[in-house]
Amino acid sequence: MINVVLPNNPLEEFGEGAFSISPTIKSVVLGGTTKLPKDTFKNCAAIDAVNGLDRIISFGESCFKGTSITNFIFNDNVEMIGSRAFALTKISNMKLPESPVTELGNAIFEKCTSLFHIDFGGSTIIPQNTFS
């Protein structure tokens, strides 16, 4: 299995789907990265551990869709969570930031059958099809 370690200096840009559909990626260290583009780790089914989430302010559409992550803690500076960002994951417990997220996409937790507890923190809106 492969462990992806991104540099501590923030990557200025990496493309959509940069690591998508990589069945051998087991864990990820995000380093200094602050934004995850669309489909970054989409369908990387073996990923069950992600470190460095405390710096992420933007989660692109479907960025962790179809991974095996079970727990996720956001920092209070998150500005955007894209549509289906955590769809089809094994997340069981989720807590959104205390400060309101500026943009919440649709179907964020689509088909998350293990999700049994969610704390919406400071968010005042539950988007369309959040749990479809």
UniProtKB/TrEMBL annotation:
Taxonomic superkingdom: Eukaryota
Protein name, UniProt field: Leucine rich repeat containing protein BspA family protein
Organism per entry: Entamoeba invadens IP1
